[in-house]
Amino acid sequence: MPKPNVREQLLEAGLRTLHTQGFNGCAVQDITQAAGVPKGSFYNHFESKEALAMAALEMFWVNGTARRALLADDSIDPVERLRQHFQKLSKALAKIKYERGCMIGNFSSEMSGNPEFRERLTKIYADWSLALERCIEDAKSAGKLKAQIPPKALAAFLVNAWEGAVLRSKVELNGSAMEDFEQVVFAGFFA
């Protein structure tokens, strides 16, 4: 396997470092040190720490593509698609011992004052909500939506509730908030 180039090393180290320490909790030197490259090489590949952070956010979002694609797999019952989607997210959090939370939520908290980040995060939330909404519409068509809530509103609620549960799991370092989320969502809204 070929050795990653310096830009890839910085991006991967940036993703890990920013996800672990947050944007304000790390410096360019922390990222270059984690990448094992000289600090001076950073600016050959990224204009600023913000530029690397945006690229890391994109990488984080792209890494979740398969989990979101599951929501559109009509060979699987729509409620089961939703359940599997959130279970896969829960497993990813458990794998990192709940310490880092979700980079999308983390950046929403830290970077919402930056218009470029606010715009990108808004689009991420909209795209995620739309994928959930379409799956919820399938559940409604199949007669499996118990609640009289429009799919669009329920999808937005699921994203909001999920991100809140992730934040709590990061504080408590356990998955009980995820378990509560799953119990309420799947017992309360779906047949």
N-to-C SSE string, H for helix and E for strand: HHHHHHHHHH
Judged by helices, strands and strand pairing, the structural class is mainly alpha
- Average of per-residue pLDDT values: 95
The helix count comes to 10
Main β sheet profile: none
The CA-CA distance between the termini, in Å, is: 48 Å
CATH architecture of the largest domain: Orthogonal Bundle
CATH class of the largest domain: Mainly Alpha
| Counted beta strands | 0
Radius of gyration: 18 Å
List the domain count as a whole number: 2
CATH fold name of the largest domain, please?
Tetracycline Repressor, domain 2
* CATH homology superfamily of the largest domain: Tetracycline Repressor, domain 2
- Regions with little confidence, pLDDT below 50 for 5+ residues: none
Any idea what the shape is?
A: elongated
Beta-strand percentage? under 5%
What is the share of helical residues?
over 70%
